[in-house]
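Sanity check

After download, print the first record. It should look like this:
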Amino acid sequence: MKKTLLATAIAGALGASAAAQAATVYNQDGTQLDIYGNIQIAYKSVDNADGNSEDEVFDNGSTIGFSGQHIINPGLTGYFKAEFEHEADEEKVNGGINDGDQAYLGLKGNFGDVRLGSWDPLIDDWIQDPIGNNEYFDPTDSSSDLGGLYGGSLADQVDVDREGDKLQYLSPVWAGLQFAIGTQYKGDAEEEFGANNEVTGVSSQGSNASFFGGAKYTIGNFSLAAVYDDLDNYGLHATEEATGRTLEYEAKAYGLTAQYVIDTLRIAAKVENTDATYAGEDGDILRYALGARYGYALSDNFSGDLYGNYQYIDADKEVAAITNAGGVNNSGDYVGDDSFNEFVVGATYNISPAMYTFVEYAQYDRSHDEGDGVAVGAVYSF
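Expected structure tokens:
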């Protein structure tokens, strides 16, 4: 689950976990501390790169979180959030809390909001989530492209961190208009992206700080958002072993999303582009998507969400391998398609205000049907 609480809240009060509330453990003299979390266990059957189906029972993002705030003065509040993940399906052998999610601190007031730490990219929250934000299967996007930007053996040597080491300013809302600007800083001592030059044949292109920014306008039930992220600290030089050539890998991402919410129905449309350089070749990966989510309530005891999304991808042949790794043959040449049709459909059913089940089916139209599959699961939120 990416952010079910957010998704269902947008869809409407009938959403599966919208009624789940954090537990306030302290609230006195302007200081508040909350504890919240969820247990998510699911089953999936997904086609691998060879076209063979693989299944498992797995943890879908079980989390325990802490959030707090303190009123410094009437116009200024300090706050924090820290979330930690654990493998609920194999808790004993995985040793409890073993991963992190969001963690940040900040100041907010009449001037807006300043935040420092780790959280989802702005392009994820404002552009991608209104389309997908499903339980397990999501449409591909510019964020997932970065996982394929460093193809072949290079992908095993460098890490991708889209959430950490960020600083962001978020403005107040003025007549429906809001904007955000920020940077992700990766210093010379960082291991990500080969920035510390400790991976043989791989070096950073020299930029430590990226820039991202966006604007959102809301009028009534309609909103429009645009985001740009130069991903500047992802640029790499890599030496090709066979020829000794130095190849370039870099990307920029930007998108536009419009959405309309009426009662418990949300409809959204998106245009998103990854402007990439892959092994020295330039090209674009354009995405056009539609998504909808509806909160149903047939009776007091029968409610949940119905949702689906469709996405068409038009990729230049030079960079199509970024989004379709299975199209690369044994000689390292790309022989796959350069356009793809993706869709995901799903439904949730509320067992109680704090517990629900879900089922999803996805097709990604990739070589050997890689990524296609079905998932079912259950979530308990507190």
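If your output differs, re-run the checksum step. Summary of this record's structure: The mean pLDDT is 87.
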